[in-house]
Structure formats: C-alpha cells, structure tokens
Amino acid sequence: MITGATDGLGRALATELAAAGAAVALHGRDDAKGEATIRELRERTGSQRLRWFRADFASLDEVRALAGRIESEIDRVDVLVNNAGIGTNLPGGGRSLSRDGYELRFQVNYLAHYLLTRSLLPKLEASTPARIVNVSSAGQAPIDFGDVMLERSYSGGQAYGQSKLAQIMFTIDLAEELRGTGVTANVLHPATFMPTKIVLAGGVDPVSTLGQGVEATMRLVTSPELDEVSGRYFNGMREARPDPQAADPSARRRLRELSDQLTGLAAGRR
Questions:
Q1: What confidence category does residue 203 fall into, taking pLDDT thresholds of 50, 70 and 90?
Q2: CA torsion through residues 11, 79, 71, 164, sign
Q3: By the 8 A CB rule, do 116 and 67 touch?
Q4: Contacts with 202 (C-beta within 8 Å, 6 or more apart), sequence order
Q5: Distance between the two ends of the chain, CA-based, in angstroms?
Q6: From 102, 110, 114, 160, active-site residue
Q7: Strand pairing category for 233-235 and 238-239
Q8: How sure is the predictor about 194, in pLDDT bands with cuts at 50, 70 and 90?
Q9: What CA–CA distance (Å, rounded) separates 117 from 245?
Q10: Quick check: is 160 catalytic?
C-alpha cells in the first residue's frame, strides 16, 4: 500500500514494485489521476494486480474511510509506505488549514499517516512479517509544542520540517511498540531534491535522480538485510541521525498524546 502514488516517488515506486510482480494498492486524492496512473502502470508493467483507493488527507474522516476500505477489501498488507505529502510552498502561500482545522502540512504529511497507520495495525500484524516505511526528509525542524499549529509564527519551512520530524518520532515510538510482533517500522530521507512535484513547486533545481530515491525506498521495502531492523532513520542508503528532538522520550510522548487527541484515538489507545 503506497500513499501519494500518482506522482513523483510514490508513482515511481509503484511502477518498480508492479514490475517486480507485487500486488500494489495505490492511494491519491484525484480519481481521474488515479485511474490514469493505473492504466499507465498496467501498460508499462503488464500487471493486473493494481488497486486504486481515493482519499484526501486534508480530511481525517476520509482517512478513516480509506482505512475501512483497505481493511474490508484487501486480504493482507505486507508493506505500508507512507509517502503522500505537501512541501513548503502552496499556491497562494501562507498558512493553510485542513478541513479539520489543523495546520495543513502537519495533518497531510504526518497526522493523516498517524491515523492511517494506527488504524491498519491489526491488518499489518495479521500479515506478518510486515513493514511500515515512512518517507520523511532531511529537512527537519523541532516541534514547538506551545504552537504546533503555528498560529503565532508561521513559515512554510517550519511547517514542513516539523511535520517530517514528527514522522521520525512516530517511527521510533512505533518500532518500540511493535517489538516482537513481526512488524517493523523504519523511516528515510530517500534522496536530496529529486525532480518531484514538491521540489519543482518550490523552485528548486533537482540534485538527485528519482531513481536514487526509489532505490533507497525499495531497500526498506524489500531488502532481506532489514528483516529484523526497526526504528531506524536512513538518509538514502545509509543509517543516519535525525534532529536531536527525535531522541527525546518526553517529546515523543507529548507528540503521541497530542496525535491521539487530534485524531480521536485517545479513547481507544492501544
């Protein structure tokens, strides 16, 4: 299952996996674009094992509905790749809110994936061995828990960076929680400034190729070397250290409690 699979890294990863014979479920927020992606992948790879799932991550209700569809329509989820995201710039610029009233990047890049992943844990545990791969970034920023929604001071860089660090903090917590279950969780910065929609929209010249990002992500998805590896952050092909806040148990606890509260999971915490 790949979120954000109609563009950039997600689409390229889906193509690679389909060509290798995997059954791939693709997520996006535009049905027309999703159907076009499925058609193209079938033509390019010959695979008939492709499924389309639509949900706008700016709505947590749609994330819940997506999780429900996956639960009922897919027998097993061997790998969940949380890849969907938005960058530092949006049309019109400035601070934007999700339909739930949360800062948009924090919700789309992190909170929606938090809710989706936690909702799919029973399916993942029933599919063991299984893997969770979170696509983050080297562009990280510490979370100011006094102003997580950036109401007092806003910048697109801070919004993006804290959402990406939140993904890493979640991964570390999740790996500890899932120890011994047969489900691993790892996170990576796939490559620097690939020619993706996020990078190009930011007016940045690409540095890495899309192929480099796919190679690094595929390693976390498929490599036997990582069968027992969990809770790690990778920069490309190498293990690396994220922002120091990720190593702070109290900060991770605050983020977990906030995430449960914002997603409505607090009452049914595992």
A1: low
A2: negative
A3: yes
A4: 87, 88, 89
A5: 22
A6: 160
A7: antiparallel
A8: low
A9: 22
A10: yes
> Tokens 């999700």 — which residue?
98
- Mean pLDDT (whole number) for 236-262: 98
Whole-angstrom Cα distance, residue 152 to residue 55? 30
Mean pLDDT of 196-204: 57
Query: In this predicted model, what pLDDT tens digit does every residue of 136-163 receive, in sequence order?
Result: 999 999 999 999 999 999 999 999 999 9
* Residue 138 domain-assigned (yes or no): yes
CA torsion through residues 198, 200, 202, 206, sign: positive
Nearest CA-CA partner of 190 in 136, 144, 123: 136
How many domains are contained in the chain?
A: 1
User: Residue 147: which CATH number?
Assistant: 3.40.50.720
Q: Assess if residue 3 is contained within a domain.
A: no
- Is pTM, for the whole model, over 0.70? yes
DSSP per-residue string spanning 108-168: IIIIHHHHHHHHHHHHHHHT-SEEEEEE--S------TTSTT-SSS--HHHHHHHHHHHHH
Phi-psi category of 150—alpha, beta or left, where left has phi over 0 and alpha has psi -120 to 50?
Answer: left
* Residue 2 counted as domain residue: no
Cβ(5)–Cβ(14) under 8 Å?
Answer: yes
Task: Specify the residue for token string 């696509």.
Answer: 135
> Do residues 200 and 172 touch, judged by C-beta distance below 8 A?
no
Distance of alpha carbon 17 from alpha carbon 14, whole angstroms: 5
Is 129 part of a structural domain of the chain?
yes
pLDDT score at 202: 55
Torsional sign, CA 186, 187, 189, 190 = positive
Picking from 108, 86, 85, the residue whose alpha carbon sits closest to that of residue 98 is 108
Query: What is the domain range of residue 200?
Result: 8-268
Tokens of 59: 């709505």
